[in-house]
Amino acid sequence: MTAIVRTLDDVLIAPAHPGRGATQEYFLNMGPQHPIAHGSLRIILLLDGETIRKVIPVPGYVHRGIEKMCEHLNYRQIIHLTDRMDYLSALMNNWAVARTVEKAAGIEINDRIETIRTIMAELQRIQSHALWWGVLGMDLGAFTAFLYSFRDREIIGEIFEEIIGARLTMNYIQPGGVMYDITPDFADKVKKILSYMKRMVEEYDTLLSGNVILQERLRGVGILTQSRAISLGCTGPVLRASGFAYDLRKVEPYGAYEKAQFDVVVGTTGDCWDRYYVRIEEMRQSIRIIEQLIDDIPAGPTMVTKFNTKIKLPPGRYYNHVETARGVLGVFIYSDGGEKPYRLHFRSPSFNNMWAITEIAPGWRIADMIAIQSSLDLVIPDIDR
Amino acid sequence: MDFIYSMTTCTAAADVITLADRAAAAVDTNIWLSILYMVLALVGIGALTAVLGVVLIYAERKIAGHFQCRLGPMRVGPHGILQTVADTLKLLLKEDVVPASADKAMHFAAPLMSLMATVLVLGVIPYSPILQVTDVNIGILYVTAVSGLGVMGILLGGWSSNNKWSLVGGMRAAAQMISYEISATLSVLVMVLFAGTLSLSGIVQSQESGWWIWRAHGTGLVAFVIFIIASTAEINRTPFDIPEGESELTGGFHTEYSGLRFAFFFLSEFINMFAASAIAATLFLGGWMPFYIEGFETFNKITSLIPPALWFLGKTAFLIFIFMWFRWTFPRLRVDQLMRLEWKILLPIGFINLIAAAVIVLTKFYFFPV
Amino acid sequence: MTGQIKKEIRKVGLKDIPVAVVSPLKKAQSGLCALASLAKGMRLTFSYFRRPSKIVTQQYPENRATLKFPPRYRAMLKLIYEDNGYHRCTACGLCDKACPNGSIKVITRKGAATGRVELDRYIWRLDSCVMCNACVQACPFDALEMGHEFENAVYDRRLLVFNLNRYAGPPASVMLKTEESLRPAMMEKRDRYDGPVPLNGAQIPIVKPLISQEGGL
Question: What pTM did the predictor assign?
Answer without folding.
Answer: 0.88
